[in-house]
Amino acid sequence: MSHYIIINDPTVKPKEKFSFIISCVILTLLLLPGSLLFASNTPASSQVPQRQPSPAENKTMDLLDTPSRYSPKAPISLLMDVTRSNDRLIAVGERGYILYSDDDGKSWKQATVPVSVTLTALSFPTAKQGWAVGHDGVVLHSIDGGENWELQLDGRRINTLMVEQLKHLITMNRNAVKSRKTTGTLNTVTEPSGDERQISDSEALENLEFLLDDAHFALEEGPARPLMDVLFQNHLKGIVVGAFGMILRTVDGGKNWTPLLDRMDNPDGFHYYGICRSETALFIAGEGGMLFRSDDHGEHWQRLTSPYDGTFFGITATPDGKRTAAFGLRGSLFISHDQGESWVQDVDLKGSSISDAVFLSDGALYLSKVDGSIMQIPAPMDRMTRLARPFPGAIALTESKDGTLVVVGIRGVACVERTPPHSITQIN
């Protein structure tokens, strides 16, 4: 799979070009192996070796086995996600940093974390229980509101689980071929439209073998592939998604994880960037305009007809399921009012990519763009407001209990007032 980035297009305005470059930088930070990101500011004597250590080399430093160090600069370091759990704010970022604040973001404390890889996303289904994911396939768990964390899963185990499941699926596929030859039935797949089409046995087997080859490569390469997002519906049921089609589910609070490769229509192994809940449905968004919905808590997934063939950086929804928003490159923003059956582009945010979007307590949709703009689209979606204070390199946002916007990104964390607006644009 190849990605081509063209930034010398004369039709692209300088400001738009700058925003696109920043988008590419953020995308690189999301996908860059934790060891490479960490190495640039690490003394040579403590850098991770380029080759994978043998089991006997237990003295070799590994970011998966190195606790995150305390740093007074953590609040101004690269932070990738922020969420609110009751009255507490929690943020995650590079070097295994996890920060929490009990005063609406005015001050931050650093949590105890067992790894030093870059962390990318958070989910707190209860006030005390939370999960964080990141590079090298890391899944962390906290039972005290984010103050202390333990490692539940990493890329070493994920790679093994992927290989084991794909071998099992290939065996099942070959057995099904024998059965179909006996009964004369057809092998079909369901298209995003809901229609079924015939798929040859050789095509189905080829898809699985491609994924198995890729999984073997990942196993040899080591735990280098990042998880991009996490969603726990309660303290037991959760799903993590990531690069190269990684998706795993747990129903026991993370004690056991099951890959869902056979549930997803993603034969090319495109990246998943975001997952959200919309009332009783779950949604996933990713590379190549991929959109999926599950109506049974993540057990099965349907690929939706997408309004866009570019990359979606994420997806968000209102708790009542009345509005779902998919967002991504070059200001792409699509809204669904019918649980993903159809999508509309009510507002065109050309230029700067949208790094995060969230529906907050006032019912408005708030967007962070990589050019620093923080946008507000009220519930009627009849106008768009750009807040006065920009935050260049913004990656994620949420709100504190007092209603202040909390934004994290390349420059760390900042609190942004919702008023006064810098400009208001009417939406037709």
Key traits:
428 residues; five-stranded antiparallel beta sheet; globular; disordered C terminus
Descriptive report:
With 428 residues, this protein is an alpha+beta fold. Helix content is 17%, strand content 32%. The protein has four helices and 29 strands. It has helices at 14-31, 34-39, 155-183, 201-221; strands at 79-85, 88-93, 98-101, 109-110, 119-123, 130-134, 139-142, 150-153, 188-190, 196-198, 227-232, 238-242, 247-250, 258-259, 272-278, 281-286, 291-294, 302-303, 312-317, 324-328, 333-336, 354-359, 365-369, 374-377, 383-387, 394-399, 405-409, 412-416, 421-426. It has a five-stranded antiparallel sheet with strand order 22-23-24-25-29, with no helix packed on it. Strands 1-2-3-4 form a four-stranded antiparallel sheet, with no helix packed on it. Helix 3 packs antiparallel against helix 4. The longest helix is centred in the middle third of the chain and has 29 residues, at 155-183. It is globular and about 70 Å long.
Low-confidence stretches: 1-21, 34-51, 54-61, 424-428
Helix content: 10-25%
Name the beta content range.
Answer: 25-35%
Rg, please? Answer: 22 Å
Query: How widely separated are the two ends?
Result: 39 Å
Largest beta-sheet details: 5 strands, antiparallel
Mean pLDDT: 82
Number of strands: 29
Structural class by sheet pairing and helices: alpha+beta
Number of helices: 4
Q: Strands of the largest sheet, in order across it?
A: 22-23-24-25-29
Shape: globular
